[in-house]
Structure formats: C-alpha cells, structure tokens
Specification:
Rossmann fold; eight-stranded mixed beta sheet; 14 helices; 45% helix
Length: 296
Amino acid sequence: MGLRHCIAGLFIASMLCGGAIGQGAWTQADIAVEKDISLRVIDGGDRNAKTTILFVPGWGMTTAVWRDAMAAFASRARVVSLDPRSQGFSTLAPRGNTPERRAIDLHEVIKALALDKVVLVGWSQGVQDVAAYAAAFEGERVAGYVLVDSPLGAGPAAAMSPPAAMQQQLERMSLYARYPREYLRGMMNAIIQSPAGKARIEEFVELGLRTPPDLGIGMLMMDFVLIDRRPALKKFNRPTLVIAAEGPNAESQRAMAQQIGGAQFEAVAQAGHAVFLDQPDKFNELLARFLARLGA
C-alpha cells in the first residue's frame, strides 16, 4: 500500500524535481465523467498556449507512461493526460470499459477543462479510443490526431486469421487471469526495449495491477477483438499523424493511414511498441513537426 501511495504522487514529484514545473503549475485532479465515476487527470505546461496536447495511454497504463513526453512539450503547449476508467487512479468502473465510452470520457474531460484546439495523442488501446472519439464527435474541439503504434481493431473474423494467433492471445489472457503481476512484467519487458524505459517497468507493473484482471480481459476483447472499428477511419476530418514502430506491424498501420485523407505515416527504427519510451527524441521530433504543421 505504501508503494502505491508513493506512485500516486510520483508524476507531480518528478516534474518538480526535473524543473518542468517552471512552465506553469502541474495539477492533479479527479474529473467526474458520469455518476460515481471519475478520472485522474494531470494538467500542466503552458496554459496560455493556443494548443493542448491530450495524451491517452494504452491498456493497463496511466499518465505515468507519458511523463517524459509531457515534460518535453510543456514549454510550447498545454499538456494533459489521464488514467482511463478502471486504470491507475481512476474509478474502477463496472461498466463502460470500451473505446466508445472512453471516447465520451475524453469529451467530458475536454469540456471540464474548457480545452480547445486539442491534439489527441493515443497509444495502443488509446488509438481505439481516439478513433471512437473521431467517430462520435467528428473533430469537435480537435486540431489534430496522432495514432501511435496500433491499427484499429478489425472484428472477430480478422482476429481469427490466423486462428493460432487468437489461440496464443487467449492463452496469454489465461496467464494474466492467474498470474497478473508476472504477466504484466513479461508484457512490459516485451513492449519496452530501451534501458531507460525498462528501468520504469516495476512502476508500470504496480500501476497496471490496479486494474482487476477480469476487467482487463474484458477491455482487451472489446478493444481489439469484438468490434470492427475500421469504419471510423472515414470520420477522421482533422490532420492525422500515424507513428509506428518499424517492424511487421508497421504495414497494417501504413495501410490504415492511407485510408485517412491526407494522413502522414512515419515508422521509427529500433523501437518496441512503446515508441516514445524507446526513441523519445525521434518521437518528440515527429510530434513537434506535426504541431508546426498545424500552426500550433
């Protein structure tokens, strides 16, 4: 319990120690998105900037995973991140653990903070959430979208092709249900390659354990298996940047970018799934160029 209490304040403490607080006060708040459900939100950077970057973490992750990127952009934008429902220090929700409901949650946070000209940056599960936002709200209050290292879920038929891949995924879910700490540690080591990123794995594991495995498994199924979200690509009506880790999964993301009018695709070499942790300089360069393209 002591370790988790320390982790709860780690984000703000790290910003203070790193000097990023000089760009304006960093605040931590719980924002209600529906009755009895609130999200932990970190808000900082330049509050007078024309643009806000809203960072959306992946499955089992929290604002902590975006800490370095937020600090890097604090001098040029307002920077916000959140723990999605049932993750980190947000409410464990018995319902609504889907991209479609989390898109509404994003909309509620944007309204609560009176944000405008938002650049929505989603990673992994967060890509599904950003796509659901584009489908539901058609760019309301959004200046641009950044989709980081995940194609959209393509539904049950695609998930079963080939069947061996789905079998492997289900076997992993079984391990997660029985041995959540060991599963999360293995997953983090698989998706993070850099020594600096690996040094933070135990922090990420502790935060990931705040999501009960039964909720976590349901989220994974709703995120990537049960719903074909590719029709949402036609709803992207703002400039879009797709950033992929170079490798076998990059081509599906390149194809996704080609279905979004005017989207830019970039592949990053020598990076795992957590591109922004493994290659932070390259990731920040790509995001900065995208902001310049938006005139931010």
